[in-house]
Amino acid sequence: MRSSRRHPLFVPALLCALVVLAARPAVAEGDGDGDGADLDISAQVERLYEDASVATGQYEAGRQDAEAQRGRAERAEQLLVRERQEIAVLREDLGRIASAQYRQGGGLPYTAQILFAKDPDDLMRGQRAVRRADLVVANAVAKSRRAEGRLAADEAKARSEWQALERRNGELAEIKRTIEAKLDEARSALQSRADASVAAGSCRGAVRLDQPPVDSSRAWVAPVETYELSAGFGSGGEHWAHRHTGQDFAVPIGTPVRAVGAGRVVKVSCGGAFGIEVVVEHPGGYYTQYAHLAAVAVDQGQRVSTGEWIGQSGTSGNSTGPHLHFEVRVTPETGSAIDPVPWLAEHGVVV
Q: Is 109 or 143 the better-scoring residue by pLDDT?
């Protein structure tokens, strides 16, 4: 069930590419000899996200280059338009000169002036007239040829600019495919590890995320930065025993999940319908739950700040697709949930 109030997913693949997992999660007690495998997966996921982050930087730099290339190509096209107009004018001038010469007998009058000159002054005037006529024609022809030469060179340059832009766009498309492939691989590895934890009913240790700068001016934030609202509080569905107890935020696997406010982690659990979940206690007697995660980045008892990354979204537990299940409760346990959307609004967060 989709909410009518949506926030667009602003290029989620590029957002998730900036997440970097550290390769040193501590294995929780009871995980036994899974330590080596867990570290190997964490190192693999870290490398994949780092590679995707580098590729994202290349994509952005390439996109800016392509925009500059497009600007050069468009300016070259504008120059060609002006040059073609100039050549059209020059050709009209040549046409007028040729017509004038034809009407005057193709230069015969000037020759006649020389042949029938009565005195040296007439002869000189005739010669000057012939030279002026020849000079006008020669200049017009030379100017037209120079303009046509520039036009041919600039046409070749314009073709080269557009071809370079086409090649660059092809390179960008390939970089983007690389990013998407790396992110798909990283998400798959992350979710596989989450599924193994849920199946075992035992949480692995917290992974350490490179935290973003925290805006200390905000006391409350949304649990994810970019999202699309899906199933809302109280909605019906075959996946819930009664009514839906939270608000779902549709986001890709691996999206950083934030503590909506400052508090203390009172529960980190893996297994059951909620899959991997974190519950945070806030001042004032309220609790927030973050469920269906792929990984947790906090330990039970840890204090967290507003906006601090406490995990990564996934599709663990009773989930039909990647999303964050978010609840607000009056106790740390299920069954005490209230509608989180108006609660967030009361705290200055509109979703």
A: 143
